[in-house]
Amino acid sequence: MIALKDKIKSGLSSEDALKSLSDDGFNELSAEKSRTNLIILSEILKEPMFLLLLIAAMLYLILGDLQEGLMLLDFVVVTLSFTFYQEGKTEKAIEALRDLTSPRALVIRDSKQIRIPSREIVIQDIILLNEGDRIPADGKVMSSTDFMVNESILTGESLPVDKNISDKELPLVYAGTLVVAGHAIVQITATGAKSEIGRIDDSLNIIKAEKSTLSKQTSVLVRQITILSIVISFLLVLIYGFIYQNWLQAVLAGIALAMAMLPQEYVVVMTLFPALGAWRLSKQNVLTRRLPSIETLGAVSVLCVDKTGTLTENKMSVTAMYNQNLESLKLDNSHVLELPESFHSLIELSILASAENPFDPMEKAFHELGNKFLVNTEHLHHDWKLVQEYGLTQELRAMAHVWKSTKGHSYAVAAKGSPEAIIELCHLEKFDKNLIEEKVNLIASSGLRVLGVAEAIYKGEHFPDSEHDFEFNFIGLLGIADPLRSEIVSSVEDCDAAGIKIIMITGDYALTAKKIAEEAGLTVDMVLTGDLISEMSDEELQQKMKTINVCARISPQQKLRIVESLKANGQITAMTGDGVNDAPALKAAHVGIAMGDRGTDVAREAASLILLDDNFSSIVKAIKLGRRIFDNIQKSMTYILAIHIPIAGMALLPILFKLPAMIFPMHIAFLELVIDPACSLAFENEPEEENIMNRPPRDTNALLMSGRVLTTALLQGFGALIIAFVVYYLGIEKMPEPDARASAFVVMVISNLSLIFSNRSRHMKLLTSFKLKNNTLWTVAVVTCIFLIAVLYIPFLQEVFRFSSLTFFQFSLSILIGLLSIIWFELVKFFTA
Questions:
Q1: Residue 412 forms beta bridges with which residues?
Q2: Which secondary-structure segment (H or E) carries 576?
Q3: Residues facing 595 on adjacent strands
Q4: Do residues 596 and 614 make contact, with C-beta atoms less than 8 angstroms apart?
Q5: What was the pLDDT predicted at 214?
Q6: Max alpha carbon distance in the chain (Å)?
Q7: Taking the CB of residue 537, how many other CB atoms lie within 10 A of it?
Q8: Is 427 left (phi over 0), alpha (psi -120 to 50) or beta?
Q9: CB 538 within 8 A of CB 564
Q10: Range 484-494 average pLDDT
């Protein structure tokens, strides 16, 4: 038995675990198949743009135009390579998120309790399981208390199974099953494919592809534009064919127009931005379990947060004490070297009411206090045996431990919990009750968490079903400090400026909650308690939540009512949670945020996001990033729509005006090499706007391409089209066709770049936006200019593009006209803002 205790206490060594991991492999099932390079390639080749490029290349080769045919094939390869790179980057981002969001397990390694990814669990590992945990591997129970497991994932039976140790054998637990009550220490016996669930290969996927509201809107837009482009391109083929009686050239003109109108970039943006956005969020200690939540994140208008560990550091210390006679002792900012005897039993009982090897910061604080003041006293009981536990319930916010000493036949019962629960257990007279409540209010008003402690002596043989059946005596009160995180005040100010209401929700005493909220910078007119909520109708609660910033003594079930009330008020709600009973509220919230450090697996599975550091400021940073992602999507969409107008127009208008065709498939392929990286990588890399956290949350019901955005895009696009067409129209009258085409093409390319720079910011002045760092954008601009010079002045490329060398004056004038288009773009932005 001693050897077993030692084994549990020390766990595996890091060296043994590493060797076992090398021998047996990771604890994982055959995960969802990632998109291989071959799959990505096949998907790309099915895209209409590539099919049109290939058809155009084949037609040129049939016509005997070898140079243009081969050049188009080169463009196919280059565009294919770039698209392949983008898709690969997206897939890598999603794959990284799968790894990051894999479940965590609490193990004992090198005599320390640490959390590791479940995939790193090995055979012989000692793991600690608590209510709400998903069991990571098969194992045998070495120690347990009221331990119940839901095995429905294996058996289909929803009733919990008792897994407490019997006299006959050690119970077995299985990977994928869920702890629904109690806690246990388990030694792992099988991992990965060798586990019970591994044999049936029933794997669960972390990140699933879901269609967000924006994706659905985009799909409709893409479908409508695609149908329109097909119809118009078909009509152009007929018009061209009948006018010029050259049907092959008519088909090429139709292909060019279809290529110019097809909005395939929209799909790229809606795939790439959320995936890379989730990757960026992971750098802010926020993991994304559901990609659509990124879309909602930037629209959050109410943020419901826990106090302990989210607003506070979750580093607890006892700073105030009241003994049985209500004599006080302060430990904060003092140098107490010796504790008065009258306080010894208070610490003794608080330790006995805690776990033997605590993980909870509050229980650790009690043990630290005992190690400091009780080491050479009779108040520490390492040789006592824990024989019974009574857990915390919603009806009674107190827990009790029954201990058997090495001497005597009686049992010592230690209880700790909320002051009102301890008062209830002790059945105190009204006078004593009022005195204790006075001291509780005094402690709580200074922002301390208050805990009551009680003791009972039991001489029976069979333990009662409830703590109420013990005869408890009041032992004292403990005031526990949990400092506010240093960055909280500034984060709260950021939320105020961003129009985001913060509601602090806690199970703590109302006065404690009020003090901490005020220190954090929240305005507290009233603290809404769980007792008041239980008396309210849904309609009353809905009205009350319009003015409330602090909720105290709240049960997890009441969290769900709070979420539903806020949603009924039209608020986009984010909710944090960590417990099993928090799962309904996390699921109901628009954005559920589970605690990654102290949260249960059930909470993490119900949430959209996982907060790795449990820090409120990380949530605020995530909201800021969510707003940036949406902004950049909208900028990219505006640019895509705007730039397709002059490209499509220059493929159509010359023919309608009976002018020589201005652009052909290779010109559009060239422009696509600018558009694709600009609308995806360049805009995705754009930093946030200066005022991003100084404006109210966006309306989630508003269309991505709203009236203002659509008007801006159309006016910018038609402006660019008019400028390019006028240059071509006048050029045809005064210079050879290749010169006119080259001049108009330079104007189009430079206008394209001007449009990118103009759309970098909707609010910032153009010159100011140039100071914003975006290396990808500048790379796109420089490479585009190099390519443009190449096609204008390298003879082989001149011939393929049907250009002639422009004089210095012609080239400079075309660039100037293209640059001047930015004046129009900025005027449009100003008048549509």
A1: 403, 457
A2: strand 573-577
A3: 611
A4: yes
A5: 64
A6: 114
A7: 8
A8: left
A9: yes
A10: 90
Q: Which of 427, 430, 452, 429 is nearest to 323 (CA)?
A: 452
Identify whether the C-beta of residue 363 lies closer than 8 Å to the C-beta of residue 352: no
DSSP H/E element including 80? helix 66-100
Distance CA 191, CA 196 (A): 9
User: Do 111 and 6 form a contact (C-beta atoms < 8 A)?
Assistant: no
- For β-strands 302-306 and 501-505, DSSP reports them as parallel
Backbone angles phi and psi of 109, in degrees to 5: -130, 130
In this structure, the number of other CB atoms found within 10 A of the CB of residue 330 comes to: 11
Specify the residue for token string 């004992």. 108
Which residues, 6+ apart, have CB-to-CB distance to 170 below 8 Å? Answer: 140, 141, 142
Res 806 pLDDT > 60: yes
- In whole angstroms, what is the distance from residue 768 CA to residue 761 CA? 10
Q: CA angle, 73 as apex, 71 and 78 as ends, to 5°?
A: 95
Cβ-based burial of 473 (10 A; exposed 0-12, middle 13-18, buried ≥19): middle
Tokens 């007119």 found at: 525
The Cβ-side half-sphere exposure at 316, using a 13 Å CA radius, reads 24
DSSP one-letter string for 214-255: HHHHHHHHHHHHHHHHHHHHHHHHHHHHHHH--HHHHHHHHH
In angstroms, the CA 327 to CA 323 distance is 6
Which whole-number Å values give the CA distances from 436 to 76, 236, 426, 439, 745, in the listed order?
80, 88, 12, 5, 85
87 and 44 Cβ atoms separated by less than 8 Å: yes
- The Cα 57–Cα 39 span in angstroms is 24
Q: Is the pLDDT of residue 486 over 60?
A: yes
Give per-residue pLDDT as tens, 405-418: 877 788 999 999 99
Q: Which residues pair with 288 in a beta bridge?
A: 609
SS3 state of residue 665: helix
Please enumerate in sequence order all residues whose Cβ is within 8 A of that of 120, keeping only pairs 6 or more positions apart, or say none.
Answer: 17, 21, 26, 27
Question: Can you tell me the distance from the alpha carbon of 605 to that of 600, in angstroms, rounded to the nearest whole number?
Answer: 9
Q: Kindly state the tokens that stand for 272.
A: 């790439």
In whole angstroms, give the CA distance from residue 509 to residue 441: 9
Please say if the pLDDT value at position 617 is more than 60. yes
Strand, helix or coil at 628?
Answer: helix
Strands 126-130 and 112-117: unpaired
Look at residue 205 in the predicted model and tell me its pLDDT. 41
Give the total residue count for the chain.
Answer: 833
Strands 473-481 and 411-417: unpaired
Which amino acid does the sequence have at 12? L
Tokens found for residue 415: 């209880």
Whose structure tokens read 């039209």? 570
Rounded Cα distance between 312 and 328, Å, is 25
d(CA 551, CA 548) in angstroms, rounded, equals: 8
The residues near 26 (Cβ < 8 Å, ≥ 6 apart) are 119, 120, 191, 192
CA end-to-end distance (rounded Å), the chain? 75
Q: How far is CA 421 from CA 388, 437, 609, in A?
A: 19, 12, 34
pTM of the model: 0.75
Torsions phi, psi of 796, nearest 5?
-60, -45
Among left, alpha and beta (phi > 0; psi -120 to 50; other), residue 291 is alpha
Distance of CA 136 to the CA centre of its chain: 23
Residue 453 φ/ψ, nearest 5 degrees: -130, 140
